[in-house]
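In response to reviewer comment 3 from the previous cycle, which asked for concrete evidence that the modeling workflow produces usable outputs, we include below a single protein chain processed end to end. The sequence was submitted unchanged, and the resulting structure tokens are shown without manual editing.
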Amino acid sequence: MLKAYSIIPDLNKKAKEILEKNNIELILNDAGDIPSSEECITLLENYDILIIGVKTKISKEILKSIKTPKIIATLSIGLDHIDKEVRQSKEIHVINIKDANTISVAEHIFSLILALQKRIYESNALVLNKKGNKKNLHERPEDITGKTLGLIGAGNITKEVIKIAQVFHMPMICYTKNPEKHQDLLNMGIVFKSLEEVLKESDIISVSIPLNDETKHLISKEKIELIKPTATFINTSRVNVVDMYALLEKSDKNPSFCVGLDIDTEEYEALISTYRRNVIVTPHTAGVSKQAIDRMDVELAEKIINEAKERIRKC
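The workflow returned the following structure tokens.
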């Protein structure tokens, strides 16, 4: 019987049943704390499977102590919290989730777009400050129907965003490093363009790409200067895909430039703590709706079982 340890204390009931019915002994982290790198090494020495979240950092140092095959399963799409050497190791198989929360993230993206374009965030703040008159808005709300949507990234989240955008009859252009791998998007009305063209031509921009060495600060200060001063910019990817200081500097200089961010906020607490009527920040909640969490837990459990069975078959 394989042994699994979940750093996530509240795994979905169905996910737990899937693991236990397939002869995997599951231990939950009832304390709910996030183990250090050293503690993760000890856990992997004692367990065959380690279930983690994005807050758990897995360092390459762990490889020095691992002598038998292990599975690390992360409840996330991104893998930047796991060192590349670990992801490429022959002894450790890393599993992530790719589908379960895509709808939730896509809905969140449009929630940010609509909240900004319809001045909902600003309007609410005016009401709370007893200035609830539409004349106090810095400008009138806008429709998104017919506006050009620029998509950066062509993965599963982008595909769900496209489906929603079609309802608003939005022309869509997309930048991806390898457009030849995403020809199915052509049938969804997408036109592939360079990154510079997408930034220059779009009225609304949505960034959905993983963070790695190539994409860190992909949207640099120079790239941000290409964006229309009246555009709306949404980032639900890792925060460091974008130069945050340059982005918010642009929003401060241009009242009609709107920014919606769903990010881990710790690194930029001082920068984002000031109220801006044209900026909305949510603390990395896009992919963690109630329904998404249940789907993620089940998807991860099923992938663990498939990988465990494959390893047994090879043995």
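The mean pLDDT is 93. We consider this sufficient to address the reviewer's concern, and the full set will be provided in the supplementary archive.
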